[in-house]
From TrEMBL:
This is Resistance to homoserine/threonine (RhtB) family protein. Its main location: membrane. It is found in: Cell membrane. One of its GO terms (molecular function) is amino acid transmembrane transporter activity. The chain crosses the membrane at residues 6-28, 40-65, 71-92, 113-138, 144-164, 184-202. It is a multi-pass membrane protein. GO terms for cellular component: plasma membrane. It comes from Streptococcus thermophilus (strain ATCC BAA-250 / LMG 18311). It comes from the Bacteria. Keywords: Cell membrane, Membrane, Transmembrane, Transmembrane helix.
Length: 205
């Protein structure tokens, strides 16, 4: 793999990862309501979720998901259900705040990490995407393992930086708006996550 190929791949990763999706929506909502420290747990959960998806795609699970409509549909429906669950939970957490000066209760230890992991892992398109996207940049005349390692790490690091930036800026915006806005941010985030789930439902398999 040449340097120009790697640069092209990195640019492609940036363009693919930068637009906000359901995971980033949850990340921004959490960062604005609970601060960037909690959001960073989601970031690392997403990172490990992406790593597991990469490994599964390399061992052939991506090909299985392509051919098994039932398995794909089950995993996809689980992802949609989990997104709706997080949206509803955001509503319920906001409803617990009765006073404008009262802060929202942060997630329990490890919960944000788990949510970040599952949002990535329960989206079967991630596994299929890795199985079809990465091979386009691999030179079959060069060591396969080294190239896949470089490409995988590049994708994960770009995603990590992207999520950290979203978390950082969202947290600062949340600080500017003040804690009295946390309840409404949680409501908006909940609506956005449920709408994202509905959009996924109507997307083609």
């Amino acid at each position: 793999m040449s340097l120009s190929t790697w640069i092209s791949y990195t640019i492609a990763c940036i363009l693919l990862i930068s637009p906000p999706g359901p995971t980033v929506t949850y990340l921004i909502t959490t960062s604005m309501t609970h601060g960037k420290k909690t959001a960073y747990e989601i970031v690392w959960g997403s990172f490990w979720g992406g790593l597991v998806c990469l490994i599964l795609s390399f061992i052939g699970i991506g090909a299985i998901l392509k051919t098994s409509g039932t398995l794909y549909a089950i995993l996809r429906l689980l992802g949609i259900a989990y997104l709706i669950y997080l949206g509803i939970k955001s509503f319920l957490d906001a409803n617990k705040v009765k006073d404008k000066t009262e802060k929202m209760v942060p997630p329990e230890k490890g919960e944000a990490f788990k949510n970040g992991f599952l949002l990535i892992f329960l989206n079967p398109k991630n596994i299929i995407f890795f199985a079809s996207f990465l091979p386009q940049f691999i030179n079959h005349n060069s060591p396969f393992l080294l190239q896949t390692t470089i490409l995988s790490l590049t994708y994960l690091i770009v995603g990590l930086i992207n999520d950290y930036l979203y978390s950082f800026f969202a947290s600062n915006i949340g600080n500017v708006l003040g804690k009295h806005s946390e309840k409404w941010i949680a409501y908006i985030g909940g609506v956005a996550m449920i709408l994202s789930a509905i959009i996924v439902v109507f997307q083609n398999f």
